[in-house]
Amino acid sequence: MKAEQIDWVEFDVSSTSRYYRVNGVVKLKVYEFTAPIDEKPPVVFIPGWVTKIEVFISIIKQLMAHGHTVYYCELREKASSRLAIPKPKPEDFSIEHTIADLKALVTQLGLEGKDFYFFGSSLGATLIADYLSREDTPQNIRPISSVFMVPALEIRPHTWQKLLIRIPLIFEKIIVAIVQWYMTRTFTNPEEPEQAYSFIEKIATIDGRKIQLSAISIDRMNGYQVARFAHKVKDKILVVGAEKDWLHLENEAQIFADQMSNAIYVNLISNKFTHNGVMGNIASKYFANESYDEILPKSV
Q: How far apart (Å, rounded) are the C-alpha atoms in residues 240 and 257?
């Protein structure tokens, strides 16, 4: 499919986007940010469950500046995915399907048998860990190393959330309002009030039906827990947490790292650092096996 040129004027950067068919009924959107001097292995970027690409462009720009072309991949629960399925069901959004999509994407991007890196945020990091833990993931589509930013240790709906995700979507506006209220009241650190606006904006852009089916699928498997597979991950991993992030608790990121045999952990203190160029610089230096101690923030 022909690539579409996109100018991210606010960020002074451009990308292309195109769809890749990962199986007979699913096409996924990938944004390609080409490095000015494309001299390093590319980075396959897997974002979290409910998020927007704009949140990560500052990170992507730094990866590009260090010579990495970045493939930002939107998986099947995103609004951009194209599903040739007349009546999608929760099983169409299972973790098994998502891992299979990720394997297919790496191949479709032409990275089979080539050097590349993974960068995952939140649920995206958890999915990459799952991908790496599986013995049936071929060696020729495994990365050199990976960076996990504020990874999700567990996704397990509470009782009221189990009911909420099963409410008919004719009440979508009410559901969205409830989720926005809950996220802003529960996960906004008073020291970083701008997080409230971020939650509201992200939730407003989701595809309600796809997220609903994805959530029901995870609920049916009794939640998605890193403890089931993290101990099987032997790959090189940098895990990054932020102690002021109330959504992705810093101690959970530390636990995530401790469960993997070849992972190291860094505390970036604040989302102000995890979601800007500091994170991109640290990831680039980690990929290059260089020291990043001098750019670690000491406080906010």
A: 9
Range of 99's domain?
Answer: 4-155+224-295
pLDDT tens per residue across span 185-217: 888 888 887 877 677 777 878 888 999 999 999
Identity of the amino acid at 49:
W
Q: Tally the domains of the chain.
A: 1
Q: Measuring CA to CA, which residue among 172, 7, 44, 20 is closest to residue 118?
A: 44
> How far is it, in rounded angstroms, from Cα 220 to Cα 229?
18
pLDDT per position as a tens digit, 233-257: 999 999 999 888 877 766 889 999 9
Give domain status of residue 244, yes or no: yes
Q: Is residue 172 part of a domain?
A: no
> E strands along the chain, which residues?
4-8, 13-21, 26-33, 43-46, 70-73, 82-83, 117-121, 146-149, 154-155, 224-225, 237-241, 263-267
Q: Which residue has the higher pLDDT, 192 or 226?
A: 226
Q: Calculate the CA 204 to chain-centre distance.
A: 18
Amino acid (1-letter code) at residue 59: I
Domain of residue 121, CATH code? 3.40.50.1820
Whether 68 is covered by a domain: the verdict is yes
Residue 200 lies in a domain: no
Q: Is the pTM of this model over 0.90?
A: yes
Look at residues 149, 152, 147, 154 and name the one whose alpha carbon lies nearest to residue 121. Answer: 149
